[in-house]
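Hi C.,

You asked whether I'd gotten around to modeling the 189-residue construct. I have! Everything is below, sequence then structure, no commentary in between.
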Amino acid sequence: MLSSLTDACCAGSGALAAGVAAAVDCLHRQRESAAGLAVGSVNGGSLERAAIFDASPGGAGELITVPATNGSFMTTAFGVNTAGLVCGSGIDPGNAARNAGLVHDLVAGTTIDIGGLPGRNGALPFAMSEAGHVAGSSMQNQGSGVPFIWTAETGMQPVPLPAGTSQGAARGVNSAGIQGIYRRIQSGR
């Protein structure tokens, strides 16, 4: 169900403004999966931790506590899909200046640090598609960033910026990947 919802809300009406508005709306709808899971964080400051909330009657919350192999841990979760993949950002204890972009697998119980684009050392993943695409912004330390799309198969790939711009972030993604969104906007469909 979420895949259909995500594809529908990310399709846009063909105009750039409508396409961008649809992608932003898509991000908001994508934060709760068809399985009744919502993600976010609890506490704040140095105690903030990523959490998964079971929105079904009688459901409960759970912290994401499994670190990546480099010790990075998730402080805020932004996206979840029905396969149990959660994307979010966190802290790398070996380099607290960088944004650690993380993907946690609820089924396998593992977390991976997705790294950064060439010349950059971190990422903020904002959205997760049903197909496992992660979209966000990659940056050096906590500076300005550029949009990316990541999959387990291809790793992190840059998303082209519009002419005359130098920074940005991808905040929504459909099952075809962010490129599917840009193609629809550019072609007017």
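If it helps when you're writing up: The CA atoms of residues 5 and 78 lie 17 Å apart.

Thanks,
B.
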